[in-house]
Amino acid sequence: MRAVPVPGEGVGSLIAVAWRTRRAAWVRRLRGNAGALIGLGLLLLLAAVAAFGPRLAPADPYRIQVVDKFLPPTLAHPFGTDELGRDLLSRTVVGARISVRVAVTVLAIAGSTGVVLGTISGYKGGVVDEVVMRAADVFFAFPSFLLAMAIVAALGPGITNAILAIGIAWWPRYARLMRGQILSLRETLYVESARALGAGDARVMFRHILPNCLAALFVQATMDAGLAILTTASLSFVGLGATPPMAEWGSMVAQGRTFILTAWWVPIFPGTAIALTVAAFTYLGDGLRDLLDPQLRSRGGV
Amino acid sequence: MWAYLARRAAGLVAVLFGMSLVTFAISHVIPADPAAAAAGLNAGQEQIEQIRREMGLDRPLVEQYLRYVTGILLRGDFGQSIMNQRPVLQDILTFLPASVELALVSLILCVPLGILLGTFTAVRAGRASDALTRLLAILGISMPVFLVALLLQLFLYKYLRWFPPGGRIAFAVGPPESITGLYLVDSALTGNWAAFWSALHHLGLPAITLAIANLAVITRMTRSAVLEILAQDYVRTARAKGLREPVVLVRHALKNALVPVVTVLGLQLASLIAYVFLVEVIFSWPGIGSYAVRAILGLDFQAIMGITLLFSTIYVVVNFLVDLTYLWLDPRISY
Prior knowledge:
The structure holds two protein chains of two kinds.
Chain A: H1 10-31, H2 34-56, H3 88-124, H4 126-141, H5 144-155, H6 159-186, H7 189-196, H8 201-237, H9 249-256, H10 265-292, H11 294-298
Helix pairs in contact in A: 2-3, 2-10, 3-4, 3-6, 3-8, 3-10, 4-6, 5-6, 6-8, 7-8, 8-9, 8-10, 9-10
Chain B: H1 2-29, H2 34-39, H3 45-54, H4 61-75, H5 88-123, H6 128-142, H7 145-159, H8 183-189, H9 193-230, H10 233-240, H11 245-282, H12 288-297, H13 301-329
Helix pairs in contact in B: 1-4, 1-13, 5-6, 5-9, 5-11, 6-9, 7-9, 7-11, 8-9, 9-11, 10-11, 11-12, 11-13, 12-13
């Protein structure tokens, strides 16, 4: 569907055509990437479940009915019931929204802090750069799970603090990414010409440099969204994140793990939900990177 | 080279100093009442006051920090565990060998296999088996380690009965005489083969779980490193010289691919530590992870901070050593 520009239509339509061909090439490449498609499909499903969760859930996820405890998966309870007789399908469905919220909040905290600090650091250079980057080195030096664990322990257990802690532990990733992007973009011709035309710092930064960093940022965020869910679930698993009865997937696995030998469905279904979600983000992130990184592309789509 | 080493060592010290500032902030500044946090939930007012005096929390922050750091450096003072009133360091040293043994056995399982799989998929890049391995590798990365652990417990213990469900050694056998604290080594040294087999048997599930968790990352990394090197001119030269493919692969490609692979192994230690925490809980493995989770559940703040600081230090030092192995792995790097 490559359109040929008609002479005399002006620059605007040329750009439109260029954009359309570019988009078509994107779609083609995306189509050739099975992993990215699987990821995208799973994420659309997740988004739908998160959006309509409470309405989709066949039963009240928090309703305790002890007589129905440990029912294996049947038509009435497709995922079975847990030790308190709660419907596991409903709990897993409701958990999707919690997980999406976790991913978004962690990325918002780590991303905004990292982007702001990394931008300043890369653009200003000098002492500011030195201070920010050495601080990033220090945070990077910690195994991030341990750092998050210690921060939650200091703040007090709970899902909000767990999210906050992961955000704090992860900001250097974004700071480094942004700084690297800015350092390389700062020297490009179009930035130079914008400056020559009299654009100020802020204008160069926000109109010319930032938009060109978005692709790399987006790939990193996609990959990290899954990891954020996984890390929060792990913190919940050791008792630092969500607390019962919240239908958070990690906490559901933690509560259910003691029943693995007698009622396997209690921990396995929420655990599988975590695995699929994380895999979806990783597949998509992996595919997006191949798509957006021209270097990888020329190598024949590694 | 010595100038390089000195510069790196200085960087290491700077990072460790920064880390001590962060852990100090977490333990002394973030909590609303650090003394209450350190004393634990069930502490009475008297205990809290005592800890406030011990930690010098009424003193200026700079003085508190100096006291904190000198305590760690000079006396190995990571505070006292609330659970059992023992110094945290002593607790850590008690539980460490079990975790080290578990981590080492899992690495022996997954490192050679991961490098083999990675090389294999790189050679077959673009074919169906490669695509499949890549899809599986991402799935492996995405599986929460606790889910892997539970699935193995279900299949390898409940249905197949290949391994015991948890614990470190059969109760009837009892632990071997302690020399290194590693049961396999101790029992082999003392010729206690009953203990050796029991320990090995108990290592099965947790070690396989950890190995699976790391296998995917090692495979992916090796694949991309080998792939990159196979595209180099010197590989084409080697082939043009008429060297056989296995020789090209092992002597030329794999050896050079090891630099990024070793780097990733060093960084992977961070996940390994996190995985050990989760896996030990599920398999009732009496190591540092189980200890840490008990500390968390008991809100034993001092123990948590001690573990964080100690393991973060180990992580940094290991990665420093990994950097140094480049000098040996890649003679071109001379600095």
